[in-house]
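User: Um, any thoughts?
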Amino acid sequence: MICARFTQHFNGIGQNESYANFRYILIPKEDRITYTSLYQLVFNAGNLALATFEFWMEKNTTHGKM
């Protein structure tokens, strides 16, 4: 049990670091602010779309509707 937990935590640290730095892969050195701003804009638009879809699904599938 302890070995499994240790392995999960060790792998989780690497995964979090790779996802946190994913936006900086292959970004040109000039004009990084534009690229990171675009990344954040697309990321947040995707989150908004998913939250809207989730709200719609919950509204339309409650009590047998849809």
About this structure: The chain has one domain: 2-64. The chain is about 75% helix and 0% strand.
